[in-house]
Amino acid sequence: MRLVKAIAATALAFVCAASSALALDATRSGGGAAGLLPLRAVVSAPGGAADLCAKYSWACAAGTSAASFGADQMEMAVRINRAANARIRPVADLVQYHAAENWAMPTARGGDCEDYALYKKAKLIEAGVSPDRLLLATVLDRKGDSHAVLVLRTDTADLVLDNLRGAVKPWDETGYTFLRMQDPRNPARWVATMAGGMLPGVSS
User: Fold this and answer.
1) pLDDT digits (tens, 9 = 90+) for 67-122
2) Which of 182, 115, 126 has its CA nearest to residue 152?
3) In sequence order, what are the residues at sequence separation of 6 or more whose Cβ sits closer than 8 angstroms to the Cβ of residue 162?
4) In degrees, to the nearest 5, what angle opens at C-alpha 65 toward C-alphas 167 and 59?
5) CB–CB of 130/64 below 8 Å?
6) Reduced to 3 states, what is the DSSP secondary structure of residue 11?
7) Burial grade of 128 (CB within 10 A; 0-12, 13-18, 19 or more)
8) Which of 19, 36, 146, 166 has its CA 20 to 30 A from that of 176?
9) Dist. CA 117–CA 33, nearest whole Å
10) What pLDDT, on the 0 to 100 scale, is given for residue 4?
11) Strands 169-170 and 158-161
């Protein structure tokens, strides 16, 4: 029951935000295409990420994804995902910052899920991947708990780099319920996705 209430509350919050937000053209933005997460309406940033752009300008940088994303880049993404998962120790924000949410790069002590995602985004940008292909996203995991991942937008699919697994999977194979994500057209803002996992009927 707690899980159902959490999903309902989250969905209601997004519906309310969307009613007064700019609706996105899914066809023009690529959202809703086969393999890609739908892009619905502009919403507020997740808690703890309100100052993300001021803290790390590269985390909200725009770019160009005109160049194709090939096999070499895919292998590099898998390597970076696995290396980050092995290197960074899991530490909750409450333990490290005495705050419920604080989106930041991992420290020497480690970091939590969004810190892993930020680290991976930084490393992939350094390796030459266009920032608009690297989108932070919030989800509910299979247990209904809040979680953050990095979405890698290739030419045909949105792939997920996750600190809970070494494999890089298409978003719709994770079992996660995707709530919101950075807008690939303007990563300084966030858009609702509301797709997958516990919302199978809201996938496009």
Assistant:
1) 778 899 999 999 999 999 999 999 999 999 999 999 999 999 999 999 999 999 99
2) 182
3) 81, 149, 150, 169, 174
4) 70
5) yes
6) helix
7) exposed
8) 19
9) 24
10) 42
11) antiparallel
Pairwise CA distance, residues 39 & 191, whole Å: 6
The stretches in the chain having pLDDT less than 70 are 1-33, 200-204
CA dist., res. 66 & res. 82, Å (int) = 27
pLDDT at position 32 is: 54
What's the pLDDT score for residue 3?
43
The residues, ordered by sequence, that sit 6+ positions from 123 with a Cβ below 8 Å of its Cβ are 80, 84
Give me the amino acid identity at 1: M
Q: Which residues contact 138 (CB under 8 A, 6 or more apart)?
A: 46, 146, 147, 148, 178, 179, 180, 181
